[in-house]
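Sample A.
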Amino acid sequence: MDALQALQSAPLDVRTAALALLDEVSAPLTRRQLAAAFRSQGFRPIEARRLARSLRRQDIIAVVPRTL
């Protein structure tokens, strides 16, 4: 059984809670949140704002550094 099948076969209260959590963590970042995420990865504030502004038409849900 994959994750989607497990969710579909779960009781209604479990599905409701799981979908609420997924909705919360997958909400698109605002331009301000996106700029803050870029700053936390080492971009200067002006670069972070420029990057965030350039992505304003995209739904970005995470900024994660690559690991080696």
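Sample B.
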Amino acid sequence: MKKYFFEIGAILIALLLMSTVTAVPQTQSKPAMDIINDIEDKINLIESNEISNIINNAESGGIIELLIQLITVIIQFIIELIGIIQNIIGLVNLIETLIAAFTTLFQLIQDLIELIRSIFNPEQLISN
């Protein structure tokens, strides 16, 4: 009889745990999703304002102002791209240094193993 109570109790606890696990993300994700939606709405608003500002400035300042703004945006993009490339190059250099360090570490481990072998298995002197 105890065995059945334990089995039923285990099943009820498992169902209770499953219900709490599935309920927690939905109740806690709603505020986060609201914030994310607000941020996306603000980003869309900013992007639409930037585009409309460029168009309005082009109308008021002429085609030369539009070209200057486009060139400025392109230069900023290129500067960001150069920064990303520099970060990638730094990462590659870091990986190369890490590989060299691991190679040295493995060589030192092999030398240590050889040293331990030579301590426990000394070579016998060959008499002439």
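B remarks: The CA atoms of residues 32 and 38 lie 10 Å apart. Helices lie at 2-61, 63-120.
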